[in-house]
Structures are given as C-alpha cells and as structure tokens.
Give the backbone structure.
Amino acid sequence: MLGKRITIGVAAVAGAFALAACSSAAAAPRPAAAAPAAAKTPRCTTADLSLSLGKPAEKSDAPGQFDVPLTYKNVSNHTCGLYGVPGVDLVGPDDPTFGPVYHLPRVDNGVKYNEVTPGMTATATITVLTPAEGGKSWTPTKLNTIPPGQTRALTADWPSDLPVLRQDAATHPGTYVNGILADPS
C-alpha cells in the first residue's frame, strides 16, 4: 500500500510541475519569427512588366528540342518579386483535334524568390519539341503568358520558323514552360 501511495504522490508532483511549465510557457511571450526580406517586396504585376522572346536555341543533348527564352523586364519604378512558373499558351491555327490554343504544362524548377529592380529582367525558358521530319506540323502565331500570381496576360509574336509538336494529351510532353530564373545583374 505504501508503494502505491508513493507512486501516486510522485505522479501528482510530476503533473503539477508539468502544468506549471505549460502555463508559464503559454504566458511567456514568444519572439516573433523574422519575416524574410522577400516577403516585404510585392510581386510584380502584369502592369510592371514587358515581355520579349529570345532566339530559339537547339539543345545539344536533345536533337529536335529547342529552348526559347521568355524574358520579363521590370518597367516600373519599384523593385518587385518575380518567381514561380508563368502560365503560357501558344496560339495558332485551329488544330482539328486540339483547337487553336496549346496550354503548356509547367515545370517548377526556378528560383524560390527573385527580386527584380527597375530596368532588370528575369527569364523563364520554354522548351519546345519540334515535329519529326515529315510529321504533322503546327506553328503558333503568338504566345500569351500570365506572370505568376497574376490574372492578366502579356503577348508576344512566336518565331515563324519554329513549329511545335502538339502533345496536348501526353503524360510527359516534350514542350513545356520552366520556372523563372534570376538574370545576372
């Protein structure tokens, strides 16, 4: 009986200490986590940006696949954040199977955060698979892109000599848009 009373007494004391520790921890103010500097910089809006497409370059490790730089320039008078993967639609002739718009899949392989000062740029790359020789050809006329976190699009003319293999229903298509990377200052 004495052993049972000691066990209960020890449990009661331990419980009291635990309760006291919890209540004092709850009452003690916790230091606020410092917000990263990036969180203070607003995202770039569509109105903050201009758009240009660079010259397509064939990938050395994948014949028939090209990279097209999709470059956003901060035309505002303030620094803004540009990161993530933009939405990209290629628009061209009406394909009998898929229609006139090819919604490109996104690959999130860009930088986690990127501040773009006025006049500077950031680039996402569009990887394009061209049709095999003699294959069905579809050449877009323009590109519409929505910067990450925005709802309004920017438009650019598509290079007239760069056909795209339409793979709208493919699980792993050869044409897609990559995440935004910081351009060197």
Q: What stands out?
A: The longest helix spans residues 2-27. DSSP finds two helices and 13 strands in the chain. The CA atoms of residues 10 and 16 lie 10 Å apart.
